[in-house]
Amino acid sequence: MKTSAFPFVLPFAILALFGCDDASSSLPEPPVPTAKSLAAPQANAGPNSSAGDDAGGVAERNFNGAIFQTPTVWEEVPKKSDFVIAEFQVPGQDGPARLTLSTAGGDVAANIDRWRGQFQRGAEDPAPRESKLNVDGKEATLVELFGSFRDMLNQGGPQPASAMLGVVIPLRETNYFVKLTGPRTTITATRETFVKFVESATFRE
Question: Does domain 57-203 correspond to CATH entry 3.40.50.300?
Fold first, then answer.
């Protein structure tokens, strides 16, 4: 009796048919798109901002016709004296320093001697230093003093381990003063920024 091959062929055909589906299902799936970061942007971030803006940014400030590139980390505070144009608190590891802008007449050397008289130098304090800066085309004098500082506004007596960076800028009719006083470590750490601040000044006389 002759048997048909159809019953044997049919299962192979069915396996082949489903085998194609299995092969297609084994192909790698297309990548799933991932969402963008949902991290909130920095509050002060702008088109040209960077991670270091808060630490080292500057802003142009006009103080009665004297324009300075002012560090944003310096906090403007109420003036302690009517002779001061503007006053800032400069942060530091061992305490803040006081920065003031002011004007006064008189001889440059006499004003520097007055600053020297506010300091009592100890055995371990560096010697006073003077140097010149070019500020808006004018020859300014930078004075650096160290020791115990006696501030007329401080009723608690001399402040040891202090320092001062003081600049006299001669203008046509007066002198412009930029003075930074406070803990010596704060003054030393801020010196470079202070000098850049002073040298950025332009005056509308």
Answer: no
